């Protein structure tokens, strides 16, 4: 089975073709980062318009790279939510229409299920069950994953998502959008121990997160200590350490609560080297394992959508002819898939 995946939920146009025997045959990505940089964040209308320009050319490119024609495909998967409604509608309209024109089934994919299943594209995919920490620009969630579509949300952010906290804090520090990776780079030059940031909501039971206070803490630290280059790096270090520590503490708690030994991290922030290193060490100590996607599949991409779409199509979940987008779509409303073999 060969599936075309289309991702347009935010500021990346991602297209891929996944084959269940041969693996990934092509994947193309166009990032709109430059388009939004002047505004310091994603401008939804500009995002939609740019997806309109890029989606079809990238689909043509992916088919050419894979040496395929539409007749070689078995289905079209597109992100239907959650995300920016205009951006989602571009991918959903193109995906649904192409499937109709090519006489193929179409399937609507949940963006966060795409992230959650992205580690399945790697050589050593995790087996079920596992705890998944989903950390992106829009969501932070701890999920008990018993199988595909069997998701129980154990905790989530009550305010900013982890990626959003990175981006907002980076903006405060004068870094460009999206600031997460830049803040992380700045932190590499920082000294440990100069500043100590709080670990929000770790002093009480539960698996929810709150990151918005760290932004204020950063602003106050800059106000009291200035913003020379070394101070900025030291602040970046302390901020990153606080986010990573908080995530690690909650992962450990979720593993204890579920009794699982496998941890999956996915979503944009799972590209963070410090987070990966700390969770690796923690899981070695706990005699468990941690899984994450290769760096390019941590952030938004078409490969994860093609993969997730294939699982759904194999479960005979197809869309009618309507074009639908779900800007808000709780992950625990997805249907379980009977066959757990991914
Ligand atoms: O998953 P993603 O591409 O988009 C959403 O679904 O939201 O995640 C993007 C987020 C951004 O907030 C970005 O700053 C953050 O992931 N991010 C990082 C790193 N790379 C991406 N945050 C911290 N460290 C990184 N290395
Ligand atoms: Zn995403």
TrEMBL record:
<keyword id="KW-0808">Transferase</keyword>
<dbReference type="InterPro" id="IPR022450">
    <property type="entry name" value="TsaD"/>
</dbReference>
<feature type="binding site">
    <location>
        <position position="111"/>
    </location>
    <ligand>
        <name>Fe cation</name>
    </ligand>
</feature>
<keyword id="KW-0408">Iron</keyword>
<dbReference type="GO" id="GO:0005737">
    <property type="term" value="C:cytoplasm"/>
</dbReference>
<feature type="binding site">
    <location>
        <begin position="134"/>
        <end position="138"/>
    </location>
    <ligand>
        <name>substrate</name>
    </ligand>
</feature>
<dbReference type="InterPro" id="IPR017861">
    <property type="entry name" value="KAE1/TsaD"/>
</dbReference>
<dbReference type="GO" id="GO:0061711">
    <property type="term" value="F:tRNA N(6)-L-threonylcarbamoyladenine synthase activity"/>
</dbReference>
<dbReference type="GO" id="GO:0002949">
    <property type="term" value="P:tRNA threonylcarbamoyladenosine modification"/>
</dbReference>
<dbReference type="Pfam" id="PF00814">
    <property type="entry name" value="TsaD"/>
</dbReference>
<keyword id="KW-0012">Acyltransferase</keyword>
<feature type="domain" description="Gcp-like">
    <location>
        <begin position="24"/>
        <end position="307"/>
    </location>
</feature>
<dbReference type="InterPro" id="IPR000905">
    <property type="entry name" value="Gcp-like_dom"/>
</dbReference>
<dbReference type="InterPro" id="IPR017860">
    <property type="entry name" value="Peptidase_M22_CS"/>
</dbReference>
<dbReference type="InterPro" id="IPR043129">
    <property type="entry name" value="ATPase_NBD"/>
</dbReference>
<keyword id="KW-0479">Metal-binding</keyword>
<comment type="function">
    <text>Required for the formation of a threonylcarbamoyl group on adenosine at position 37 (t(6)A37) in tRNAs that read codons beginning with adenine. Is involved in the transfer of the threonylcarbamoyl moiety of threonylcarbamoyl-AMP (TC-AMP) to the N6 group of A37, together with TsaE and TsaB. TsaD likely plays a direct catalytic role in this reaction.</text>
</comment>
<feature type="binding site">
    <location>
        <position position="272"/>
    </location>
    <ligand>
        <name>substrate</name>
    </ligand>
</feature>
<feature type="binding site">
    <location>
        <position position="115"/>
    </location>
    <ligand>
        <name>Fe cation</name>
    </ligand>
</feature>
<feature type="binding site">
    <location>
        <position position="180"/>
    </location>
    <ligand>
        <name>substrate</name>
    </ligand>
</feature>
<keyword id="KW-0963">Cytoplasm</keyword>
<feature type="binding site">
    <location>
        <position position="167"/>
    </location>
    <ligand>
        <name>substrate</name>
    </ligand>
</feature>
<protein>
    <recommendedName>
        <fullName>tRNA N6-adenosine threonylcarbamoyltransferase</fullName>
        <ecNumber>2.3.1.234</ecNumber>
    </recommendedName>
</protein>
<keyword id="KW-0819">tRNA processing</keyword>
<feature type="binding site">
    <location>
        <position position="300"/>
    </location>
    <ligand>
        <name>Fe cation</name>
    </ligand>
</feature>
<dbReference type="GO" id="GO:0005506">
    <property type="term" value="F:iron ion binding"/>
</dbReference>
<comment type="similarity">
    <text>Belongs to the KAE1 / TsaD family.</text>
</comment>
